[in-house]
């Protein structure tokens, strides 16, 4: 009985620690550095703004976002290996700046 409750307590503490880390992660990476070269970015200008096709070729899951000059940035995309995401920016304001980790 003692061993079982100790394991349960350890699991609860680990879960709380992980939960705290996950909650802190978006804030910690809000001003993240430029995404590595294994995140391919294909930027296309459109008549209404621009599109960015993101492809993860890193071999592991990556979290990235499109940083936009003079407008709001994209959401944080969590991309599994070989996954893609399309960000569409429609505004007369804002230009593509870079792709960053988040």
Give a description of the structure:
- Helix content is 26%, strand content 40%.
- Strands 1-2-5 form a three-stranded antiparallel beta sheet, with no helix packed on it. Strands 4-3-6 form a three-stranded antiparallel beta sheet, with no helix packed on it.
- A hairpin with a 7-residue loop joins β3 and β4.
- The longest helix has 27 residues.
- It contains one helix and six strands, in the order αββββββ.
- The N terminus is likely disordered.
- The chain has 102 residues and is of the alpha+beta class.
Strand order of the largest sheet: 1-2-5
**Low-pLDDT stretches:** 1-30
Tally of alpha and pi helices: 1
- Percentage beta strand: 35-45%
**Amino- and carboxy-terminal Cα gap:** 43 Å
Order of SSEs: HEEEEEE
Going by helix content, strand content and strand pairing, the class is alpha+beta
Mean pLDDT across residues: 80
What is the CA-atom radius of gyration, in angstroms? 19 Å
Q: What oligomerization state is this entry in?
A: single chain
- Described by the principal axes of the CA atoms, the overall outline is globular
Helix % is 25-40%
Largest sheet: 3 strands, antiparallel
Number of strands: 6
